[in-house]
From TrEMBL:
Keywords for the protein's UniProt record, in alphabetical order: Glycosidase, Hydrolase
Entries under PANTHER family matching the protein: ALPHA-GALACTOSIDASE C-RELATED, GLYCOSIDASE FAMILY 31
Catalytic activity: Hydrolysis of terminal, non-reducing alpha-D-galactose residues in alpha-D-galactosides, including galactose oligosaccharides, galactomannans and galactolipids
Family annotation (InterPro entries): Aldolase_TIM, Alpga-gal_N_sf, Alpha-glycosidase_related, GH, Glyco_hydro_27/36_CS, Glyco_hydro_36, Glyco_hydro_36_C, Glyco_hydro_36_N
Keyword Cell inner membrane attached: no
Origin species: Nonomuraea dietziae
Name by which UniProt lists this protein: Alpha-galactosidase
GO molecular function: alpha-galactosidase activity
Residue stretches making up the Glycosyl hydrolase family 36 N-terminal domain: 29-255
Length: 697
């Protein structure tokens, strides 16, 4: 576009930004973020920058900056805070150059006190990726406060509504939607991980978007540690969203010559409502994030809820035989197989088979698993240690701690500092050794507590960097494992859904969505998850009834149909299932395998209802097939809906059911499909799966 304005253009959108220089104050501004414009029209949005009222109390331009700093005439939410030698806290940046390489541009700004700031922009499918690089080119150390990856301006609208998810352990990703309040609305995690309480993304619309209609702007952060996202709505109407790693309190020490790179913050603008936004995020995940997005995920069995800590060779082999008979393809041994681990008070850190429970090691068990036609997987918790363990007795300095302060345990465990090279080397050694010795195909990587007493005594002034370096250390271990063992697949778990984000998904194949396996509760959890993340990365289990967490009784078919909305797993005590239940499970596993490519790789439409509360349904479409999973937790009181209207079909094509009935796509979308689950009264917890195939058009 020119020497001072640039555009990041996707197939349907444009993000236009450029330089506004006023004396020595260079500001990189966002000029436009909306529908794609003709190339010759892109410059027009720069000429028509909005005029605003200035005063001695307010400079409105800072809301439009890609990286508003703390310094000069700015009073909004800063994306960058720096303290220089002598306590100077005013950042003064001057534009230096634009560096263009392939599909990426870096705008370089410099502060006379020696800080180099690079603003990076890149396009990936419909997503604009942004991040910041900082280098201390001065003679003195600097201390960084807030270091966000970028700020995004939401275009002017008559109103602003936000959508996000929040929750708690066993209640993750609960959908929240409300008017964006005037002021600053902050979503954050201070736990050291992504957390159960919030997830690092937000969607904003004008208050008129629906599931299938309306413009939606999304901002998401690809980071698995503590994070912070602030949406500010000015009284005069402007809205901007800034996001990055870290939280209030820690600061980052940058010595002369040192650099810091922030994680990507991602922007997506779509029309077509929340559904189109979700589908665009799913496409981005498949094509730019997930390491193995187009594999078919195997049907998994996990032993945790069947045995808890009572894990031994004979019992695991019996479960493996029963799982294989159901059609399971991957058998995962959960907690309790190692060291002195007979409960949660001891053994974490001692990663060798418990000699009393597995006198022949794990070889006999996993040899049997493979003889039964299944792959072999193992639960690990590499970031944790029990004080009652050989590892802690040898290396008490490896955990997060402050000298002279308590070392509080949660779940009787402490957190190992993955910022330390020796901790990472230790982890890679035994993890890689387990894969090689036992021919493992799968790790379930767990992380069961938040950071406390988060000190790093050996690091001196750099100690706060552990909030960054721990996460990067986990990334490094995962990357090394995948490089050494290309066939290894990894599941991210953090006490359930405490580490779900685009950062961890770049290194893992799926995530454990929640420790809550109750089918009714899982419906709401899975709905919130689906707003950003695809079904191929969502692990979901069928467990026992009554559920061990909620004591709710739910029929087996309903439990299966809920779990079939993602990557199907089974976690019940199969030794207690009746012959009828086993036969039904065998049939449902086979039914899932028949439609697995559609669910795991298809386009998702959330069709109707309040999942887990009212009649609801989700649809997956892939190539020539359509799968609808419908649920009704409670008997209907002679009120609609009684038909489900499908979405995203070819209106002129014919679609055929397994029974041979045919409908035009337009009929299915406009008139709908009659579902017995919805319109026939009966017991609670009714569900069904409908499979359609496109036969013409």
């Amino acid at each position: 576009m020119g020497d001072s304005a640039w555009a990041a253009v996707t197939q349907s959108s444009a993000f236009v930004f450029g330089l506004e220089a006023a004396g020595e104050d260079s500001r990189v501004m966002q000029w436009y973020w909306g529908p794609r414009l003709p190339d010759e029209a892109l410059a027009e949005v720069v000429r028509q920058a909005p005029r605003r009222i200035h005063s001695g109390f307010h400079d409105p331009r800072d809301v439009d900056e890609l990286l508003p700093v703390e310094g000069g005439a700015r009073w909004g939410v800063p994306s960058l805070q720096v303290t220089y030698e002598g306590g100077v806290r005013s950042v003064e940046l001057t534009f230096a150059e634009a560096v263009v390489a392939d599909s990426e541009i870096e705008l370089v700004l410099r502060d006379p006190l020696g800080l180099r700031v690079g603003l990076h922009v890149r396009v990936a499918s419909e997503v604009v990726e942004r991040w910041v690089s900082l280098t201390n080119e001065g003679e003195h150390a600097v201390r960084l406060g807030r270091v966000d990856s970028g700020s995004w301006v939401i275009p002017e609208r008559a109103g602003y509504r936000y959508t996000g998810v929040a929750g708690a352990w066993a209640q993750e990703t609960q959908l929240h939607r409300a008017e964006l309040a005037v002021g600053e609305t902050t979503f954050t995690s201070r736990t050291g991980t992504t957390s159960h309480r919030a997830n690092p993304w937000i969607m904003i619309d004008a208050g008129d978007a629906t599931e299938e209609l309306g413009e939606v702007w999304s901002v998401a952060l690809a980071w698995s540690g503590s994070w912070r996202l602030t949406a500010q709505r000015r009284p005069e109407g402007d809205v901007a969203v800034t996001a990055g790693f870290g939280h209030d309190g820690p600061t980052w020490h940058l010595a002369p010559g040192e650099s810091l790179l922030t994680p990507p913050v991602l922007g997506l603008r779509t029309c077509g409502g929340y559904g189109a936004a979700s589908r665009a995020w799913h496409d981005y995940a498949r094509h730019h994030v997930l390491p193995t997005p187009f594999e078919e995920r195997p049907v998994l069995y996990n032993s945790w809820e069947a045995t808890w800590f009572d894990v031994h060779e004979e019992g695991q082999i019996e479960l493996a035989r029963r799982a294989a008979d159901l059609g399971v393809e991957l058998f995962v041994v959960d907690d309790g197989w190692f060291g002195g681990r007979v409960d949660d008070r001891r053994g974490l850190g001692d990663w060798w088979p418990n000699p009393d429970r597995f006198p022949r090691g794990l070889s006999k068990l996993f040899d049997t698993v493979r003889e039964l036609g299944m792959r072999a997987g193992l639960w690990v918790e590499p970031e944790m240690v029990n004080p009652d363990s050989d590892l802690y007795r040898e290396h008490p300095d490896w955990v997060l701690h402050y000298p002279g302060r308590r070392r509080d345990t949660l779940r009787h465990q402490l957190v190992l500092n993955y910022g330390r090279a020796d901790v990472r080397e230790w982890a890679i050694g035994w993890l890689s050794g387990l894969v090689s010795e036992y021919g493992l195909d799968y790790f379930k990587w767990d992380m069961n507590r938040s950071f406390t007493q988060a000190g790093w005594p050996d690091a001196g002034e750099r100690a706060d960097l552990l909030w960054i370096e721990h996460t990067r250390g986990v990334y490094a271990v995962l990357d090394t494992l995948r490089e050494r063992h290309p066939g290894l697949r990894i599941e991210s778990c953090s006490g359930g859904g405490g580490r779900v984000d685009f950062g961890i998904l770049r290194r893992t194949d799926e995530v454990w969505t929640s420790d809550n396996t109750d089918a009714r509760d899982r419906q709401a959890i899975q709905e919130g998850y689906s707003y950003l993340y695809p079904a191929c990365a969502m692990s979901a289990w069928v467990t026992d009834s009554p559920n061990p967490h909620t004591r709710r009784e739910v029929p087996l078919a309903y439990r299966f149909h809920v779990a079939m909305a993602g990557v199907l797993g089974i976690g019940g005590d199969l030794t207690r299932w009746s012959a009828e239940e086993l036969e039904q499970a065998r049939s449902l596993v086979a039914a899932y395998k028949a439609v697995r490519p559609v669910i795991q790789h298809g386009r998702l439409h959330r069709l109707a209802g309040d999942p887990g509360v009212t009649a609801s349904a989700v649809q997956y479409s892939h190539e020539d097939r359509v799968v609808v999973l419908a649920y009704n937790p409670f008997a209907l009181a002679k009120r609609p809906p009684r038909r489900v209207r499908l979405a995203g079909l070819d209106p002129s094509a014919l679609y055929e059911s397994a029974e041979g009935e045919r409908w035009h796509g337009q009929t299915l979308m406009s008139h709908g499909l009659e579902l017995p689950t919805w319109f026939i009264t009966g017991p609670d917890y009714r569900s069904e799966m409908v499979v359609l195939r496109r036969v013409s058009g």
